[in-house]
Write a structure and sequence with these properties.
Serine Threonine Protein Phosphatase 5, Tetratricopeptide repeat, 570 residues, alpha+beta, 11-stranded mixed β-sheet
Length: 570
């Protein structure tokens, strides 16, 4: 009798637990569900994509084509939902490529299925209110794009919710692990010169993987509200990281050190898009930023033809700072400079431990050196953005985060706001030709474009970096490949079959970069060869480290290995 009661008790307990679990699942689903915008006029869905030529497509008045340099050029016009639908239909295959590259990289970074599921539910919970901080027009545009998205990744979230979340990926990444804070740098030169030579340059060093950066899009947008604008982007991304509008206002964003947020707010790229679409000078950009609620810290470099100036708006979740200079140039890296944030402990720690201040000083050094040689024009801006050395031209290894050119850029851009011209880099990174676009001409002629007719300015191309044809460049490509093999061996704890050739091939391919030696030390340490590990760690210290935290970790490892070695001798 007693046994039956216990059995009955556990049966009811299981039933109750199942009911509780189901209720919690329903509650979670309900609280994280994001409703799609209500669209009254859906006639745009009837529009068909027409192939005009090889890699040249039209959807009504909207256009996508690939130019002779490998850049995709896209023109969009009209109401938000209509633009989104057109963008989705035009870039459907490119969206699939971008999403596959993004998800593949996440899977590489987090190989555990358990943690991937945890991340999925964490982001769903974290971003549960993200739509409340995105303007209705942008939600409609994103929704229009999402209708062309693949169902392959519905296990992550429905297409619309995925697209919203991807717009916050930059923010979540650098807030939680500084993944997106690799080291963007931007600058403005010829401020207050009362000429047409105001220049803004930027490297967007946001690296997902090589595939993610292959299909850059230069988008020209003619919205039904606000100013016309151009920006450099990728398929499905309506947020802005680098752009200029028809009033000669430029916007570029640089990550800064953030506290870990508790929930989503406005993604910084959406704020940058809103500024670009609705501001014509620095004062209007500041006003928009002051009223926005973001969930990470960011520096927004604003160039303005109207003001003949370039300034930095510094934004955190709790306040906004403003920084400008009395000199004719300004530089923005990944730390704050305004009175509102300069002495913040987290900012001071970031300056002390990261490569940000070093890179800022190198940028200033390069600008001053260029100005001594004569006028600072777009060619000089390209030289600064392509510089691979450290302070005083020190060889710090290729790919070092202290360099202006870290050989990871998704894109690099040069703006001349008063002339409404922009130069966009082509592959690889910022080393290929910079292609020039004149916004006045683009918006005048884009709708009458014929196959073979260039949208860019053929006579104003900045030629590719000669480094692209050099031995060090091909050495760097070899270094990347061998580095990945060593990292994979460390992760899997499986010895390399051709250990000597791979390790020394990696080091010889990029001999001045500390990371190869540090990685070799990690490899030999994993497999118990403390003598070799110690030797490579010590060699790494003769090179220029990117940040002090990593250097201190290696110093600790050396101390540990030396103690173990001394104990063995006893």
């Amino acid at each position: 009798m007693k046994k039956n009661r216990i059995t009955q008790f556990f049966k009811w307990l299981v039933v109750i637990l199942i009911i509780v679990f189901v209720l919690l699942a329903i509650a979670f689903d309900f609280s994280t569900r994001i409703d799609e915008p209500v669209i009254k006029d859906r006639t745009a869905l009837k529009l068909q994509r027409v192939k005009k030529d090889n890699n040249f497509y039209l959807v009504d008045n909207n256009m996508l084509r690939k130019n002779r340099y490998g850049l995709w050029e896209m023109y969009l016009e009209g109401k938000p939902f209509d633009m989104g639908v057109a963008s989705g239909k035009l870039t459907k295959e490119l969206i699939d490529i971008q999403e596959h590259a993004f998800v593949e990289q996440i899977n590489k970074m987090i190989p555990s299925k358990f943690y991937l599921h945890f991340l999925k539910y964490f982001i769903a919970w974290f971003d549960r209110d993200i739509d409340e901080y995105i303007p209705e027009s942008y939600k409609e545009e994103i929704y229009g794009i999402s209708l062309s998205c693949s169902d392959e990744y519905n296990f992550i979230a429905p297409p619309y919710q995925r697209m919203l979340n991807y717009h916050g990926a930059h923010d979540i990444g650098h807030a939680l692990t500084d993944l997106a804070m690799v080291g963007c740098t931007s600058f403005g030169v010829n401020k207050g010169q009362h000429s047409d030579d105001l220049i803004v340059g930027r490297n967007f060093d946001f690296y997902v993987n090589d595939d993610f950066a292959k299909n850059k899009i230069v988008a020209f947008v003619n919205p039904d509200e606000g100013y016309k604008f151009a920006y450099v982007t990728w398929a499905s991304m309506i947020g802005v990281v680098s752009g200029m509008n028809e009033k000669g206002l430029t916007v570029t964003i640089n990550a800064a050190k953030s506290d870990i947020p508790t929930k989503a707010a406005m993604p910084i790229s959406i704020l940058a898009r809103y500024i670009l679409q609705h501001a014509q000078n620095i004062a209007e950009a500041r006003k928009i930023t002051n009223h926005a609620q973001t969930f990470v810290s960011e520096s927004i470099l604003i160039g303005s033809a109207q003001d003949d100036d370039v300034a930095i708006i510094e934004k955190s979740p709790v306040k906004t700072g403003f920084f400008t200079t009395d000199t004719n140039f300004i530089v923005c890296a990944n730390h704050y400079q305004s009175a509102a944030f300069a002495n913040n402990p987290k900012n001071l720690e970031n300056i002390k431990t990261s490569p940000s201040m070093y890179r800022e000083n190198r940028c200033k050094q390069l600008i001053r050196e260029a100005e001594k040689q004569g006028d600072f024009e777009q060619e000089q801006a390209a030289e600064v953005l392509r510089d691979k050395a450290g302070l005083n031209d020190k060889n710090i290894g290729l790919g070092n985060e202290k360099a202006m050119c870290q050989l990871i850029s998704h894109h690099s851009v040069i703006f001349k706001p008063k002339q409404l011209k922009m130069w966009v880099s082509t592959s690889s990174w910022q080393l290929g030709n910079y292609v020039c676009y004149d916004l006045n001409k683009v918006f005048t002629h884009v709708k009458s474009l014929t196959p073979g007719q260039p949208l860019d300015e053929p006579g104003q191309v900045i030629n590719k970096d000669p480094f692209l044809d050099s031995r060090p460049y091909f050495g760097f490509l070899k270094f990347k490949k061998l580095k990945d093999l060593v990292k994979q061996a460390i992760h899997s704890k499986e010895k390399l079959t051709d250990e000597q050739n791979i390790i020394f091939g990696m080091l010889n391919a990029n001999p001045d970069y500390y990371y190869g030696y540090k990685l070799a030390g990690d490899y030999y340490s994993i497999f118990g060869n403390n003598k070799k590990a110690l030797s490579f760690y010590q060699m790494s210290l003769t090179k220029e480290y990117e940040n002090t935290i990593l250097k201190e970790e290696v110093l600790s490892l050396i101390e540990k290995l030396e103690k173990e070695s001394a104990m063995e001798k006893k």
